Amino acid sequence: METNNEWMNDPALRAIDRNKLDFLDKMFFQSTKIDRSNQKEMMSFLVSLSKVSRDNNISFKKEEVELIFDVLKKYSTPDDIAKMQKISSFFRSQ
Question: How far is CA 87 from CA 11, 17, 49, 57, in A?
């Protein structure tokens, strides 16, 4: 995904707390720096992400997650969408 945050200004997201969107934007930027084919690196990133979200008291309702993914897809390439689905499948399996 590009590092711009145009997606955050999508009108469909107006009801979601801006702190949550800022958190996601930072997460997406950081995720561009990891090797997704390296399972150890991916797990380390996801564990760190989980800790940061807990430390900052950030959680998402299922409906928010679905809405955010729908919006992100509008601004993403097919490759970016596949990466998002891989990350989200990890969380659904937990």
Answer: 25, 22, 11, 20
Cβ partners under 8 Å of residue 27, min gap 6: 49
Which helix (H) or strand (E) element contains residue 10? none
Alpha-carbon distance 7 to 1, whole Å?
Answer: 11
Cβ contact 85:41 at 8 Å = no
Q: Are 64 and 38 in contact (CB under 8 A)?
A: no
**In this predicted model, what pLDDT tens digit does every residue of 6-64 receive, in sequence order?**
888 999 999 999 989 988 888 877 777 777 677 788 778 878 888 888 888 888 888 99
Q: What is the pLDDT at residue 1?
A: 42
